[in-house]
């Protein structure tokens, strides 16, 4: 029934390669099917002006897509002199999702920036960026702890994200691009490792959906996030 031949509750193959770049304090290349996202984490001994002197740390994110991440070339946003609305919305989502799993007091007055660059897109780029971004963040925090700059682990819980939707009338897990572009309902679910919700983005794309269908999507999302968290923990062990 699915274009990929997957079962309704079956995710695409997922791999996470850590230490992918040489210079960043934390880095991970996450591949979710044909969606590939490079995530790097940078530690800086500064915070935004609005929390300076508070003793609180900050985690933020930036997101972008390479010109040929998709079927046709996209113009670099830098060439137009501004970021598009979609880019701004996604990087804000990544930032607040990752912050939900951080004890900012334990982090101390420093900032970690997680850069998420989409090398290849086939649906679910924001979810892959959040999942891979947490791995890069975990590795960066590990370095802080090893150096003794942080005494208590500031990462409260893993954070992962997965898409679910109604495709051909059925609830499905982890939409790829052919499904995403034709889904009646499309949603992104961001959760902590203990299945606490951080954010849910749901919209009907031409068809309404019932409470029962929403519950079915939640069940699929919990299953998918559980699998992703296990992969995150394995990659950072």
TrEMBL record:
Occurrences of domain Exoribonuclease phosphorolytic (ranges): 10-140, 158-224
Catalytic activity of the protein: tRNA(n+1) + phosphate = tRNA(n) + a ribonucleoside 5'-diphosphate
EC number(s) recorded for this UniProt protein: 2.7.7.56
Stated name of the protein: Ribonuclease PH
Keyword tRNA processing: yes
Pfam families hit by this protein: RNase_PH, RNase_PH_C
UniProt keyword list: Nucleotidyltransferase, RNA-binding, rRNA processing, Transferase, tRNA processing, tRNA-binding
InterPro entries for the chain: ExoRNase_PH_dom1, ExoRNase_PH_dom2, ExoRNase_PH_dom2_sf, PNPase/RNase_PH_dom_sf, Ribosomal_Su5_D2-typ_SF, RNase_PH, RNase_PH_bac-type, RNase_PH_CS
Function: Phosphorolytic 3'-5' exoribonuclease that plays an important role in tRNA 3'-end maturation. Removes nucleotide residues following the 3'-CCA terminus of tRNAs; can also add nucleotides to the ends of RNA molecules by using nucleoside diphosphates as substrates, but this may not be physiologically important. Probably plays a role in initiation of 16S rRNA degradation (leading to ribosome degradation) during starvation.
Quaternary assembly: Homohexameric ring arranged as a trimer of dimers.
Residues reported in the UniProt entry to bind phosphate: 86, 124-126
Organism: Tateyamaria omphalii
Family indicated by similarity: Belongs to the RNase PH family.
NCBIfam families for this protein: RNasePH (TIGR01966)
Gene Ontology terms for molecular function: 3'-5'-RNA exonuclease activity; tRNA binding; tRNA nucleotidyltransferase activity
Biological process according to GO: rRNA 3'-end processing; rRNA catabolic process; tRNA processing
Residues in the signal sequence: none
């Amino acid at each position: 029934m699915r274009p990929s031949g997957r079962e309704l509750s079956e995710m695409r193959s997922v791999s996470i390669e850590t230490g992918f770049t040489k210079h960043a304090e934390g880095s991970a290349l996450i591949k979710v099917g044909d969606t590939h996202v490079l995530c790097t984490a940078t530690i800086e001994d500064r915070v935004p002006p609005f929390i300076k002197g508070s003793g609180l740390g900050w985690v933020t994110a930036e997101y972008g897509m390479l010109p040929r991440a998709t079927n046709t070339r996209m113009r670099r946003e830098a060439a137009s002199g501004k970021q598009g609305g979609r880019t701004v919305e996604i990087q804000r989502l990544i930032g607040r999702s990752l912050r939900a799993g951080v004890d900012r007091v334990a982090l101390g007055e420093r900032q970690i920036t997680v850069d998420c660059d989409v090398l290849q897109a086939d649906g679910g780029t924001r979810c892959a960026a959040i999942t891979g971004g947490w791995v890069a963040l975990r590795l960066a925090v590990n370095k802080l702890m090893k150096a003794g700059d942080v005494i208590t682990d500031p990462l409260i819980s893993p954070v992962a994200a997965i898409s679910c939707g109604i495709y051909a009338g059925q609830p499905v897990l982890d939409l790829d691009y052919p499904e995403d572009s034709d889904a009646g309902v499309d949603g992104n679910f961001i959760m902590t490792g203990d299945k606490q919700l951080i954010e849910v983005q749901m919209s009907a794309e031409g068809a309404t959906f019932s409470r029962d269908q929403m519950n079915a999507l939640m069940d699929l999302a919990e299953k998918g996030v559980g699998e992703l968290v296990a992969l995150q923990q394995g990659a950072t062990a």
